[in-house]
Amino acid sequence: MITTRSLTKRYGGTIALDDVDLNVSPGSIYGLAGPNGAGKTTLLGILAGLRRETSGELHIDARAGEIAVLPDTPRFDPWLTGREVVALARSLVDPNGPSGRVDEVLVETGLADAGSRRVGGYSRGMLQRLGIAATLVGRPRLVLLDEPASALDPGGRREVLDLIARLRGTATVLFSSHILADVQEVCDTVGTLDKGRLLFEGPLRDLLVGSAVPRYVVHLRGNADTVAARLTQASWVSSAEARSDGVLFLEVTSLADAEERLAEALAAAKAVVVSYGPEEVSLERAFLELTGGRPKP
């Protein structure tokens, strides 16, 4: 659906995007992950046709009328009702579409009961859902969402993420977020963007399995510092970090080495073990390691 080659954007002497090669498959939910200032909004703006690239190639397998864009803070005239906002969007992008489409997307976004209310009284989460309703009413093939859940409370984020997940297979969705847990929850493909460079692109499972250093979490009863000092002498332990609550984080050369040797090493260190096991890798940890950061224990 989307292909870019060596896509670059400069603002004077500042490089916002640096040789980005993007590949978004039809029907996928693609998460563009990265911190604020990574270039995510610039990239979405170029894909939406709102900005011009400085150099590089861009191909989108959809016509302009088949692409819908939702900015990070959608705003609407407060005197309009929710139904009027969505109806106006339909009249602009899909005037010959089915007449019941407005009510259909209001139901999909959970706004059917609030459709007759003026949007000036909508909450932040309702406005975000209304923006998604206006985005989807034209039956787009490609949906571009810029930080769709970043300013919402936990309940609002849950609603928006559920909406995005339900689009899988019905449209191609590319959404950006600096909240890595959101990307991990709903995306099947991820691109990690940092300082304008695309550091990784592929299935989420490949990033989680292939990038993160194998690590074990050991819960001990008592002070873990002595045990950590003992374990760091082992050739298969890369580092050991103890917390004051008795939790020990071990970076190991491989999980196989830990499975074979950890129990014996803990017994030799006279550790009182409550539990231990390999740490489940999160997108946040994999991203930090990919960008040279250090994940917090």
Proportion of helical residues: 25-40%
Strand fraction band? 25-35%
Strand order of the largest sheet: 6-7-8-4-9-10
The parts where pLDDT drops under 50 for at least 5 residues are: none
Radius of gyration: 24 Å
The biggest beta sheet is recorded as: 6 strands, mixed
Count of helical stretches:
10
Q: Structural class from helices and strands?
A: alpha/beta
Number of strands: 14
Mean pLDDT: 87
Give helix and strand order, one letter per element, not per position.
EEEEHEEHHHEHEHEEHEHEEHEH
First and last CA, distance = 39 Å
Write down the overall geometry: elongated
Can you describe what's shown?
- By secondary structure, the chain is α/β, with parallel strands linked by helices.
- Helices cover 33% and strands 28% of the residues.
- The protein contains ten helices and 14 strands.
- The chain has helices at 40-47, 82-93, 101-108, 124-136, 154-166, 180-186, 204-210, 225-231, 255-268, 283-290, and strands at residues 2-11, 14-20, 23-24, 29-33, 55-60, 67-70, 142-146, 172-177, 189-194, 197-203, 215-220, 237-242, 247-252, 273-278.
- The strands form three sheets. It has a six-stranded mixed beta sheet, sandwiched between helices. Strands 1, 2, 3 and 5 form a four-stranded antiparallel beta sheet that branches.
- A hairpin with a 4-residue loop joins β12 (237-242) and β13 (247-252).
- α3 packs across α4 (124-136) and α4 packs parallel to α5 (154-166).
- It is elongated, with a radius of gyration of 24 Å.
- The two termini are 39 Å apart.
